[in-house]
Amino acid sequence: MFTGIIEELGVIGGIEEQPDSIRLVVRGAHVMADTRLGDSISVDGCCLTVAERDGETFTADVMRETLDKTSLGGLEPGSRVNLERAVTVQTRLGGHIVQGHVDGTGEVLSRTPSEHWEVVEISLPSGLSRYVVDKGSITVDGVSLTVVEVRSTTEGDSFTVSLIPETLARTTLGSRQPGDRVNLEVDVIAKYVERLVSTTATGSTAERTAERTAERTAERPESGDSA
């Protein structure tokens, strides 16, 4: 689990292509200070496992499903990435609960700078908008952000976020341009609520159906009774 508070801007040191996956070599001095083999590190919002480590770099395997569902397949040597180590019991939850399981990718639609922050609009893939609400949380490339507004038009759904100078300077979001893909993870609590409500509603329907069936059975005359 992660918090969405980026610890370091890492750099892709190398990419090894394999038949159904790739191996990423990532350089990040800060996150590697106490990282061990098998530890989890969020790379642009994707939870990856440290397979090898060498000084300030680590190697992680990225499977085909992850490449298809995220923006990691577009990385190149020299690309900068957002890095965060998994939380510990001492970690402050400064953002929100982030799993590192990307739900899909969005496209940066526009950037509107202002004096103290920048408003960025990002498209929402079909099916994710029901989990996103105004003033709710969403993870963009591993960064925990607060949704300013959810928009719905004939061209599709989108949302806006306001990026403060700290976020612009310390994460890759400062360099994302219109047309760029970003990894999105919606708030997992919204998914659990939907599942709970759906299960409860289904259970209630099943109970009512069983009750009606029992009532009809009780009203039906037994075989041999007079008409």
β-sheet strand percentage = 35-45%
What is the domain total for the residues?
2
CATH architecture of the largest domain: Beta Barrel
Runs in which pLDDT lies below 50 for 5 or more consecutive residues are none
Oligomer state equals single chain
Largest sheet strand order: 4-3-7-1-2-6-5
Q: Structural class, judged by helices and strands?
A: alpha+beta
Rg computed from alpha carbons, rounded to a whole number of angstroms: 23 Å
- How many beta-strand segments? 13
Largest sheet: 7 strands, antiparallel
How is the CATH topology of the largest domain named?
Answer: Elongation Factor Tu (Ef-tu), domain 3
Helix percentage range: 10-25%
Give the terminus-to-terminus CA distance.
68 Å
* Helix-strand topology string: EEEEEEHEEEEEEHEH
What would you call the shape?
globular
Structure annotation, total helices: 3
Describe it for me?
There is one protein chain. Helices cover 19% and strands 39% of the residues. With 227 residues, it is α+β, with helices and mostly antiparallel strands. It has two domains: 8-85, Beta Barrel (Elongation Factor Tu (Ef-tu), domain 3), CATH 2.40.30.20; 104-189, Elongation Factor Tu (Ef-tu), domain 3 (Beta Barrel). The strands form two sheets. A seven-stranded antiparallel sheet has the order 4-3-7-1-2-6-5. A six-stranded antiparallel β-barrel has the order 8-9-12-11-10-13. The longest helix is centred in the C-terminal third of the chain and has 32 residues, at 188-219. It is globular. The relative contact order is 0.16. The model has no long low-confidence stretch (mean pLDDT 90).
